[in-house]
């Protein structure tokens, strides 16, 4: 694939991710209304969120392998159709069972789309350009998710269920765009790193060059999920922040993180490498997550939370870049494992954080700091394979 075609393809892939995550964010403002409209309790809504993450966790490794076997494009197309169906079902659903089916389908769609897009980007980019492309990918995801709730709030003027139907339409537009313009990338045979192919499938997790990457990914996902899921409750209980204050903090932090991914990720990778960037981000994140328990003013909370988002938002693309360089002909499978460990952290983080929050609202952040410190220690044993780079 020539450079010009690769750039066009990258724009389409990033647009699809952007549209998909706008679609996910669209529904956030109306969830409380749906909860009251259907007389659901907080536990049911929590289980509904978990259903999405669990489905993504279960299907991601398989979907990643299927992306290697059947192709990137077909997996993206199937994922977009499933996502559109899930949003349509949620818009039409008037029973808890339908809503749960919708969330499970949503998780499956994420499992299909993310590994395939990650592998697609790895296929069409050179090793030197790949970190920048992956930074753009993470920025597209974050920006879509940030903008989505605002658009969803505006769409509620047309009805409470309107954001769900809008998300379904957006996903089908992304499907049409992908079907017409995406071309399956060429996948030339690539040399493996340190003979890791001796271990197949899930056993590759135990290979050191994979093990430390996945553990670091789980640590960062766990800590970020614990941090984000309880952030609004934390600042409400500790600082009596208003919903507007919270929205400014979350949106500001997300936007700062997205800008950092575009502007800082590639230069930092070239300067310190993927492993070095992960290690430094873990250290910064640990310090600032702990700092959230001791800061006591609006601007100190704002600055601390924004820098925390930068640290967390640089870790995943750094690990993704590292994995894409050692995955050889299993880009899809590595992308699936990437999604699986991210989902695992997203599930366990909020659960443990919620339990600790009921004891003391500082405890989730203390525990997240401890987990990050463990991650830092583990990362010290993570070494770059000798054959990874020329």
Describe this structure in words.
This protein has helices at residues 3-26, 31-37, 42-70, 72-92, 96-124, 130-155, 162-181, 208-229, 231-239, 243-263, 265-291, 298-326, 331-359, 363-379. Helix content is 79%, strand content 0%. It has two domains: 1-182, MFS general substrate transporter like domains (Growth Hormone, Chain: A, Up-down Bundle); 205-390, MFS general substrate transporter like domains (Growth Hormone, Chain: A, Up-down Bundle), CATH 1.20.1250.20. By secondary structure, the protein is mostly helical.
What's this model, at a glance?
Belongs to the major facilitator superfamily. TCR/Tet family. With 390 residues, this protein is an all-alpha fold.
For the largest beta-sheet, the strand count, sense and barrel status come to: none
Q: CATH class of the largest domain, anyone?
A: Mainly Alpha
CATH architecture of the largest domain: Up-down Bundle
CATH superfamily of the largest domain: MFS general substrate transporter like domains
How far apart the termini lie comes to: 22 Å
Which regions contain 5 or more consecutive residues with pLDDT less than 50? 194-198
From the alpha-carbon coordinates, what is the Rg to the nearest angstrom? 20 Å
Average predicted confidence as pLDDT: 81
What portion of the residues fall into strands of 2 or more residues?
A: under 5%
Estimate the global geometry from the Cα principal axes: globular
Number of helices: 14
| SSE succession | HHHHHHHHHHHHHH
Give the tally of structural domains: 2
- What is the tally of beta strands? 0
- CATH fold field value of the largest domain: Growth Hormone, Chain: A
- The residue fraction in helices comes out at over 70%
Class by helix and strand content? Answer: mainly alpha
GO molecular function: xenobiotic transmembrane transporter activity
Subcellular location: Cell membrane
Organism: Lysinibacillus telephonicus
Membrane topology: Multi-pass membrane protein
